[in-house]
């Protein structure tokens, strides 16, 4: 049976929906690209990336044929690069096997690379009108507060039960599920804000919210994590020969696979060790200057970095996997993840034209 909060939430959404470029069409390609970009980045920050991406790659066919380095460049700054690789894999698969069409159900969409429960639900409900929820952090937060649900939302079983409840309690007309899913997204990012900050006075579903009635919204939802993040120390080198700086390609598998980086080594090296490292790589260091420490947090590991700028005259050209190139060439051709942003800045290189909140695998 349709829950009490559904109608006021939908009405509020029809009056207040954010004007976002991907909402101007129900084209599954556009819904898909936007949902993948939105997985780790706020909507306002996604807009310029989305518009640039769609301009260059307007459909599955152009995405399937896009060279990898160009795709990485388009994705630079959004982070979690495996998402871009999965986009291309899916585009290749759909153009080869389905003549460029998407499956219409969440169950079928979930079988595609990089499409999990949330994205499958979002595409199926928004583009194809299927009665399925798209359960992300916003939905879990709002639902936990509406029902004053004290269970751990990081527990997969709890998440599944909340999704099942939504199927039973969602709009009677299946085609309105897409709107409901987007209404949750908007309510969660505009009004039912995380931590102690929900704007209950402005909330359209306040009259049916148990957490608001009992003053418990600030401590909900409950999120209990298992394990934690490991820490890795890294020494990063800006090897400079005149205007040219050394970069190298990362391995094709693992963290930040296939992107480019400044040469680096595990551990915190002293200046003498930095000179030795240069020599081991066939470079003759004439000046070493310490750079400020930097930190980058990934989902499962934190890099604690130290760095050196090392002058290595006579090193230009490709050397032992190092590519010496001028900053503009690096910006144009060698995608460098923002994990190295502090050292890129020291080298006068911009990593990604638009900043966001972080990058990961
Ligand atoms: Fe969230 Fe407050 Fe609205 Fe409840 S009343 S859904 S806690 S903003």
Feature tags:
single chain; 361 residues; alpha+beta; Endonuclease III, domain 1; Nucleoside Triphosphate Pyrophosphohydrolase; 2 domains; seven-stranded mixed sheet; elongated; binds iron/sulfur cluster
Fold topology:
Elements (H helix, E strand, L loop, with lengths): L5 H11 L11 H11 L4 H14 L3 H6 L2 H8 L6 H16 L8 H4 L7 H12 L8 H10 L9 H14 L7 H14 L19 H5 L15 E12 L2 E6 L10 E2 L2 E3 L4 H10 L6 E11 L3 E11 L11 E3 L1 H7 L7 H6 L15
Parallel strand pairs: 1-6
Antiparallel strand pairs: 1-2, 1-4, 2-3, 2-7, 5-6
Task: Describe what this molecule looks like in 3D.
This protein is α+β, with helices and mostly antiparallel strands and 361 residues long. It folds into 2 domains: 6-219, Hypothetical protein, domain 2 (Endonuclease III, domain 1), CATH 1.10.340.30; 230-360, Alpha-Beta Complex (Nucleoside Triphosphate Pyrophosphohydrolase), CATH 3.90.79.10. It is 41% helix and 13% strand. Strands 1, 2, 3, 4, 5, 6 and 7 form a 7-stranded mixed sheet that branches. Strand 5 and strand 6 (301-311) form a beta hairpin. Helix 2 packs across helix 3 and helix 2 (28-38) runs antiparallel to helix 8 (117-128). The radius of gyration is 24 Å and the shape is elongated. The chain starts with 5 loop residues before the first helix and ends in a 15-residue tail after the last helix. Mean pLDDT is 90; it is low at 353-361. The structure holds iron/sulfur cluster (SF4). Iron/sulfur cluster binds at residues 142, 145-146, 191-192, 198-200, 203, 205-206, 209, 211-212, 217.
